[in-house]
Amino acid sequence: AQSVTQLDSHVSVSEGTPVLLRCNYSSSYSPSLFWYVQHPNKGLQLLLKYTSAATLVKGINGFEAEFKKSETSFHLTKPSAHMSDAAEYFCVVRINSGGYQKVTFGIGTKLQVIP
Amino acid sequence: NAGVTQTPKFRVLKTGQSMTLLCAQDMNHEYMYWYRQDPGMGLRLIHYSVGEGTTAKGEVPDGYNVSRLKKQNFLLGLESAAPSQTSVYFCASTGTLNTGELFFGEGSRLTVL
To answer: Residue B97 and residue A96: Cβ atoms within 8 Å?
Structure first.
């Protein structure tokens, strides 16, 4: 079984301040982990992914995430928020074991950026 | 560079009516998925396909049917729409299991009155 917990449904930051969006997961297998971003009335776009290589993953638009196996976490960070970062962010876990694949989405975190 | 295209983008139905959502991808992907997105619930998998001619149930398949007659197309059908099926529907595809990126369409907003 696997699950994803996004610890905050809403996060509000001031423009220019750091962003932290938290994600914890559980999985019986070695997972691949992803962060997607969804702007209003748009589809989901991949920000970054972890696939058992480097534990610190850099993505688009200055975002990065660190895979911490001991803490079962994959938190998303950005040093300085921009107005265009206002969107909803989804943490995703995927496993592939013996041809069986399962994808689980977190419930999402809405990021508000205050000017 | 179309990627994943969903049609229609908006639709309003009356209870009991039927309709079909079309998903088309031009990336030669084997794997295609239909999700529904509801507030506070993230994305939930309705049905998926691992190749042309194959389909399988996801988490919330009841009230929906799917078909994958051509590799590039994945159709989602509602035979008798219910208000509980009011949602935003997303199609996604990938060419590689586990590590491959899921590519999403822009969504289809369905309202059932």
So the answer is: yes
